[in-house]
Amino acid sequence: MTDFEQPGTPPWGRIADDGTVYVRTRDGERVIGSWQAGTTEEGLAFYGRRYEELAADVALLEGRAGSPASDPKAVGAAARRLRESIPAAAAIGDLDALLTRIDAVLAKVDERLAEKAAERARAAEAAADRKRALVAEAQQLSAGNNWRAGSERFRAMVEEWKAIRGVDRRTDSDLWAQFASARRAFDTRRRAHFAERDSQAEAAAARKAELAAQAEKLQDSTEWGPTAGRFRELMTEWKAAGRAKREAETELWQRFKAAQDEFFSRRSAHFAARDTELAANLEAKQALVAEAESIDAGSDPEGARKRLKTIHDRWEKIGHVPRDARSSLEQRLGDAERRIRDASAAARKVVTSESPLVIRLRESVTKLEARLDRARHAGDHALASETEASLATQREWLAQAERATD
């Protein structure tokens, strides 16, 4: 047998009597060599093994073409080289089938390359979107006033920007120009802010030096009320002056605070001594509070109110009590006042014949009593003193109006 064939398969080649070796393809026979080294069967087997080697190479490429771990460009290059060699290969077998398989490999490679290109395009767009997000954040930050956090965030964003790869050069350049512009705007505003703050700090230091000097002039004063009020004003002015630089702020505050502490320490000692001298007033006012608490406002509200007025008059004549007892006494007296006032108000709702003047004066007295109660509880002695004066006047007018209608 001179043809290379297997039972059930077409003959793919032959060896002529003169030793010329042929392979059959769809385009016809072609000479692939000469065999003189042995029998025809051995020659056909030799060229058949060469075909099997080619087939093994094709199978290897088929496996690599479908493997996600392989480089499709490298697989494609190897497949093209192999395809170019097959038409001239010195091998006997179905070379046309190998070409078809190689074409399938190349088609798979093209498919994978297209997928990778699409993937790169998606990755590039995603990377561009990340940079666009950084640009948007930068533009938002550039308008903010959180200087420390903003500066730290801008530094972190630059590092994030550097780590983002895959954006085409033109897009990247455009986005970077926008990002850099926002960062420059922020830095310009930040520098202007700190320059202005330094200027303000210098002005604040000058103003606080004046306030500290004023406080030092007041520290030996014995005009307790006016000077305490002036110190409160100085503290308000101090807060409104702004902050100096740290070292100057600390030094000036120590001067101011030392003068303030000196005055208020002397003031506290003065009032402590006075409270000791006036301890007898405490016992007298406790007795008045007990008397006010014992008044039965239910049976005779108007008489109870008049008794309470006499208690108020006596209370004012007694004067001050030690500070630590003042609040509780005024609370108890205020409770008694409210109880009696409520009873009087309830009684007035029944009496409809009272003159409008008496009603208005009584309402005014009630409001002033409530304001006096609040001032005493708040420790606002200036307001309490002012209210007491107004209340005394209104009570006198009310008494006159009530006598006129009796």
Describe the structure.
The chain is mainly α and 406 residues long. The protein has helices spanning 40-65, 72-85, 95-142, 147-163, 169-218, 224-240, 246-277, 279-294, 301-318, 323-350, 356-378, 381-405, and strands spanning 3-4, 13-15, 20-25, 28-34. A 4-stranded antiparallel beta sheet has the order 1-2-3-4, covered by helices on one side. The mean pLDDT is 87.
Give me a quick take on this structure.
The chain contains twelve helices and four strands. The protein is mainly α.
Quick one: biggest sheet? Answer: 4 strands, antiparallel
Total of helices: 12
Q: What's the total count of β strands?
A: 4
Instruction: Compute the average pLDDT.
Output: 87
Spatially, the strands of the biggest sheet line up as 1-2-3-4
Assembly type of the chains comes to: single chain
Helix content: over 70%
User: What is the chain-wise order of helices and strands?
Assistant: EEEEHHHHHHHHHHHH
Structural class, from secondary structure content? Answer: mainly alpha
Q: Beta fraction of the residues? A: under 5%
Q: From the alpha carbons, calculate the radius of gyration and give it in angstroms.
A: 53 Å
**Stretches where pLDDT falls below 50 for ≥5 residues?**
none
Shape call: rod-shaped
Distance between the termini: 156 Å
